[in-house]
User: Fold this.
Amino acid sequence: MTQDTLSDALRGVRFRGAVFFYVSGHSDWAAEAPHGREIAPLLLPGVEQVMEYHAVARGHCWASIPGGPSARLGAGDVVVLPHGDGHVVSSAPGMRSDPDYSWYSRAEIDRLPLRIRYDGRRVDLAAPPQSSDETTIVCGFLGWDLQPFNPLIDALPRLLHLRAGDDDAWLAAFTQQAVAESHARRPGGEAMLARMSEMMFVDAVRRYADALPDGSTGWLAGLRDRFVGRTLALMHAQPARDWSVEDLGREAGLSRSALHERFVQLIGIAPMQYLTQWRMQAAARLLLDTRATVASIALEVGYDSEAAFARAFKRSVGKPPATWRRERDGRDGQTV
Assistant:
């Protein structure tokens, strides 16, 4: 049941295109990327947010969020920035680079994957890797929209490090294939990399959830809890049902007060507040993925009237559902 809930939340992360860079570094080098919101209009017009990842093909490097977490990456490792934080990838810890990102707008994004070579402080566009380069990396940028509510993204750390190992053949194969596709520029390679990147993200989420220590809080920890996980699964499976905390507690096997306290402790908000927010997420998905009327969507997510649903949706996203859908439809037409 909890795995279905995780899949439901993963479906809510609508990836909308992908861009790939093939990067090499020589000598003391550092590459600094701005926040995903800043580069989204340059790399993927019409996308709200960009989630970046780096797969190390050869050598080693450091990935860090200035003032935040950092990780040393070896060959086969992958690091994901789920929240789109600005960050630095460098040959040594603590390095920064020139904060001039004008080359993003000069890059020929329509001729992907883009090849970039860092040699000290110099940046060469379209430069192939050289045998003297100590490090080669595939950098992926996945575009996604900030939907009304997606608890999964909020539950992830700012920097997620996936370590290569003998027991993780899939991650090693992903890194090797990403390098091969980025380097060869074969027909269909960009589409393959996009699908592989989505699979890598799902794998990263599952591995992070599996490694959570006992006593953790947050949405992923709630999924693992016997009672809260059952409650989340019920709300995700039947968002239109006229749930009460008493009903949820009866189904989950706890009293009303005990469920409320446990839910707030793990998830951070009350069960009914979560249900309202998830209904908005379910409605957003229906607005984008179907041609159903607003009135029918209102009924499908638990509202007796279109007007009541429209008021709730506007409180959540700032716009009525019909307006929000129309604007997103126009932007989808621009997606790479």
Notes: The longest strand covers residues 15-26. Residues 219-332 form a domain with the Arc Repressor Mutant, subunit A fold (CATH 1.10.10.60). The longest helix spans residues 189-210.
